[in-house]
Amino acid sequence: MSFIEINNLSKTYYSGEQKISAISDVNITIDRNDFVSVTGASGSGKSTLLSLLGGLNIPSSGNIIIDGINVFSLSSNQIAKLRREYIGFVFQSFYLINYLTVEENILLPLSITDYNSSQQKFKLDKILERVGLSDKKGRLVDELSGGEQQRVAIARAIINDPVIILADEPTGNLDSSTGNQILDLFEELNKDGKLVIVVTHDDNVKKRTSNVIVFRDGRVEQ
Ligand SMILES: Nc1ncnc2c1ncn2[C@@H]1O[C@H](COP(=O)(O)OP(=O)(O)OP(=O)(O)O)[C@@H](O)[C@H]1O
Ligand SMILES: [Mg+2]
Question: Could you say which DSSP state residue 109 is in?
């Protein structure tokens, strides 16, 4: 059994009279140590797949099994718990809170956990070192470059030590050299044992991943 199994997954959106098959009968297996890229034209279903994998969206049919857990057989509270324990999200447009500092942004996910402040500080310092932002801890994220902001977002995604990192166009707003630094970081995280799944249009990203999944009109092409 693979770590992630996506079985006959479909997602249909209804917008007014229109029926949109965003994902149609998709089957994918992903192993614990994979570094996966998901590519395909705009509108082919990549972000929909990622939102389903992260339990942010519910399929129309089919299922996703993560580490033996049938995600959509769970209650919404249980899905939220699974998400907190297993998954870190990174997006193209960072979604940081601009008026908070680097430190405050990274610690946000811990606000709903039981870690005390010295445990939080320990985790924070380790993560800041990991993403190369130890000297920027007290800065407002507004004052950082795009690449630095994305590293804050990655730090926030991994502060709970998730097994899976889901990233939707994480280098889309960055120039190519800054984007490459972000990829280096994902590669290191994958070597450290995280399963990384990156949605991307970027050929540089594809080249560096262990598996490439190509979407076309909601179906997997290869
Ligand atoms: N909430 C929604 N309601 C209705 N239709 C949606 C919704 N989200 C996505 N869609 C439609 O589903 C299809 C797949 O969208 P999705 O966002 O998954 O594509 P994508 O591959 O991520 O595209 P892009 O590369 O542009 O980000 C598109 O036709 C899109 O318009
Ligand atoms: Mg998308």
Answer: G
